[in-house]
Amino acid sequence: xxxxxxxxxxxxxxxxxxxxxxxxxxxxxxxxxxxxxxxxxxxxxxxxxxxxxxxxxxxxxxxxxxxxxxxxxxxxxxxxxxxxxxxxxxxxxxxxxxxxxxxxxxxxxxxxxxxxxxxxxxxxxxxxxxxxxxxxxxxxxxxxxxxxxxxxx
Length: 153
Description:
Blueprint: H1 2-20, E1 24-33, E2 38-50, E3 54-56, H2 58-68, H3 71-93, E4 98-102, H4 105-108, H5 113-124, E5 131-134, H6 137-140, H7 143-152
Parallel strand pairs: 2-4, 4-5
Antiparallel strand pairs: 1-2, 2-3
């Protein structure tokens, strides 16, 4: 247990450094319209290219990010980067793919979430109608908060 706790603390410190030093990367999975055999969207998945531990999946570092407060910074980076990348793909291929991004429950709890996402979209120039935000059922378990927020989004 002590070793695991130490690993978590170390990982939290390293994660703050990783965000600032370009160790995060996005991988994309295309979603196809099967009837027309054409891509309609891209799902963005964050990975951490750790210099010693190798490539870490979200399940390996996002829980630590949530407990250390790094999740806001990571979520902003994912949203900004995914929108920029999708915009470049759309321009290069003359299409209008949507981008799908998973939202952390901590990010979803931001009081200024809608305005913040609006600012990030404006920064990137990405069409807000092409942004798909994936939320978990757990987030929706707070209907007093989730209902109005989803309506506003």
